[in-house]
Amino acid sequence: MEILYLSRRDIESLNIALREVIDAVEKGFRLKGEGRVELPPKLGVHPRKTRLFMQCRFILVVK
After folding, report:
1. How far, rounded to the nearest angstrom, does the alpha carbon of residue 18 sit from its chain's CA centroid?
2. Is residue 19 within 8 Å of 25, Cβ to Cβ?
3. pLDDT tens track for 10-31
4. Is 37 exposed, middle or buried (0-12, 13-18, 19+ CB in 10 A)?
5. Spatial contact of 42 and 57, defined as CB atoms under 8 Å apart
6. d(CA 39, CA 60)
7. Are 56 and 42 a contacting pair, CB within 8 Å?
8. Contacts 24+ apart (CB under 8 A), 26-31
9. What is the pLDDT of residue 13?
10. What is the pLDDT, as a whole number, of residue 19?
11. How many Cα atoms occupy the beta-carbon half-sphere of 45 within 13 Å?
């Protein structure tokens, strides 16, 4: 499995307008409400001998 980590700087360098972000989130909620996309459950990663807990999320992009 390949993991792509995007830093804050990576995201900011895309220069995406706030309106585009709002529109994309709104579309995602609309598609979810229409039953056209799935939102898989979050995966939890519990490394041993540490208190670290990470939640992972897969994002499905529908165009």
Report:
1. 17
2. no
3. 889 999 999 998 998 899 889 8
4. middle
5. yes
6. 8
7. yes
8. 31/62
9. 94
10. 94
11. 6
